[in-house]
């Protein structure tokens, strides 16, 4: 039995026994035709977490950069990952993107245009789904490079992003430790790009999960070099430089999430062979060691404070 078939069977069970009864109970039958695909995206999300764990956990055990006696802060990151990959990503990237895509395509067809599509602009991509998928990934990652760089440039935005940087025990679970508002901005940004380049609805969540898989790896507590591939794919060492205590806030480097090419082109790359301690010394302790709700609350509080506080020279 192929993996695809296996996923479909599990998604079918979840749909039949958990999702459809809820939809019928509340009279939400309009969602019925999407519910299976949505369950499938949830299963992909679970699979992504399992694969990440299977790959990263042994490597972290064998080649750790740091060893920690107390792993409470890591446990909070586990909550972030499961909530994000199995909960938020499938809901937001499939159900909401699908709705937006249908409305957007409908509106431009009504206006007499044909919806945009990457294969129409670059006909050589036609019939090469893997290459098209890679192009989508490159474009989304380029957009994410600038989103991330701006989140370090603007004081109020960094007040939210500081939650991601406050972690001193960085591990493969740390990628999803983001403020919900910051995640919301990311998704809006991704939606806009995704709609503009015509990503098909079921490919969109898969792209996000694939990119997030590399991002999880890049946060791993692994003292392992990618060798020459460090210039092609963001490695734990490369992203660790971005999380270094010295780099927190305004003067960071290595913003790319998946492809370091963007840092090379826009002159923010640092490939030096160092394994620095991570964290943001200016962030409140609660952002490192608080529980999920405390961190979300504190992040929002700092965001509002940064928005309302009179401007002074930002050196976050
Ligand atoms: Zn950052
Ligand atoms: Zn990071």
What does this structure look like?
This protein has 316 residues and is mainly α. The chain has one domain (3-308). It contains twelve helices and no strands. The model has no long low-confidence stretch (mean pLDDT 87). One zinc ion binds next to helix 5 and helix 6.
How many domain modules? 1
Shape: globular
How big a fraction of the residues is strand?
under 5%
Radius of gyration over all CA atoms, rounded: 20 Å
Q: What can be said about the biggest beta sheet?
A: none
Overall mean confidence score, pLDDT: 87
End-to-end gap? 53 Å
Q: Which parts are unreliable, with pLDDT below 50 for 5 consecutive residues or more?
A: none
Helix-strand category:
mainly alpha
Number of helices: 12
| Number of extended strands | 0
Helix content: 55-70%
Q: Could you write a compact summary of the structure shown?
A:
The protein is mainly α and 316 residues long.
């Amino acid at each position: 039995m192929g993996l695809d078939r296996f996923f479909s069977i599990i998604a079918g069970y979840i749909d039949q026994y958990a999702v459809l009864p809820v939809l019928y109970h509340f009279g939400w039958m309009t969602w019925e035709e999407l519910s299976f695909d949505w369950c499938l995206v949830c299963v992909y999300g679970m699979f992504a977490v399992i694969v990440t764990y299977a790959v990263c956990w042994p490597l972290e055990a064998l080649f750790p950069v740091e060893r920690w006696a107390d792993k409470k802060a890591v446990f909070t990151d586990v909550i972030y990952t499961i909530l994000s990959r199995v909960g938020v990503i499938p809901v937001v990237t499939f159900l909401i993107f699908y709705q937006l895509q249908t409305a957007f395509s409908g509106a431009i067809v009504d206006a007499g245009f044909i919806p945009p599509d990457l294969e129409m602009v670059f006909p050589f991509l036609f019939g090469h789904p893997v290459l098209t998928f890679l192009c989508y990934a490159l474009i989304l990652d380029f957009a994410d490079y600038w989103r991330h760089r701006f989140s370090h440039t603007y004081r109020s935005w960094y007040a939210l992003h500081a939650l991601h940087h406050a972690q001193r025990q960085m591990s493969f679970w740390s990628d999803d430790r983001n403020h919900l508002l910051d995640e919301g901005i990311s998704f809006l940004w991704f939606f806009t790009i995704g709609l503009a380049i015509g990503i098909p609805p079921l490919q969109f969540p898969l792209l996000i999960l694939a990119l997030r898989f590399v991002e999880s790896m890049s946060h791993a507590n692994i003292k392992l070099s990618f060798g020459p591939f460090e210039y092609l794919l963001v490695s734990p060492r490369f992203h660790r430089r971005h999380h270094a205590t010295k780099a927190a806030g305004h003067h960071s480097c290595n913003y790319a999430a998946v492809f370091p090419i963007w840092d090379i082109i826009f002159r923010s790359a640092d490939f030096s062979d160092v394994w620095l301690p991570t964290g943001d010394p200016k962030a409140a302790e609660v952002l490192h060691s608080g529980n999920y709700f405390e961190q979300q609350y504190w992040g929002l509080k700092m965001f509002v404070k940064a928005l309302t506080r009179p401007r002074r020279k930002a050196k976050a």
